[in-house]
Design goal:
The structure is a single chain. The chain is α+β, with helices and mostly antiparallel strands. The protein has a single domain, classed as Winged helix-like DNA-binding domain superfamily/Winged helix DNA-binding domain (Arc Repressor Mutant, subunit A). It is about 65% helix and about 15% strand. Strands 1-3-2 form a 3-stranded antiparallel beta sheet. β2 and β3 form a beta hairpin. α1 runs antiparallel to α4.
Length: about 100
């Protein structure tokens, strides 16, 4: 279900500390808009938007426009499935090494 490229994109997205902090923030809320997210960090709104785009492209967050605001939330089912797929790949790799 998840290609190596999909898993790499996910891991690269969260390897940046600011994006990981955004993930942690979003896990504490149902959904937040860019302004609400930006108030938690000392970087510009355009920088926040860039980080959110990377997270969205990696399938970590989803978004929806409501009026003039775009709201973001964690796609927890996809993240869990991707991490399980990664764990399965690693487990299969290590079990074939020991066989």
């Amino acid at each position: 279900m998840f290609s190596n490229d999909d898993l790499t994109r996910l891991l690269e997205a969260v390897s940046e500390p600011m994006r990981m902090q955004m993930v942690f923030l979003l896990t504490e809320h149902d959904r937040l808009n860019v302004g609400e997210i930006a108030r938690q960090f000392r970087i510009s709104r355009p920088a926040i938007s860039h980080h959110l785009k990377v997270l969205k492209d990696a399938g970590i967050v989803r978004s929806e426009k409501s009026g003039q605001e775009v709201y973001y939330w964690i796609d927890s089912q996809r993240i869990v499935a991707a991490l399980r797929a990664l764990a399965d790949k690693i487990e299969r790799s290590t079990s074939s090494e020991t066989s």
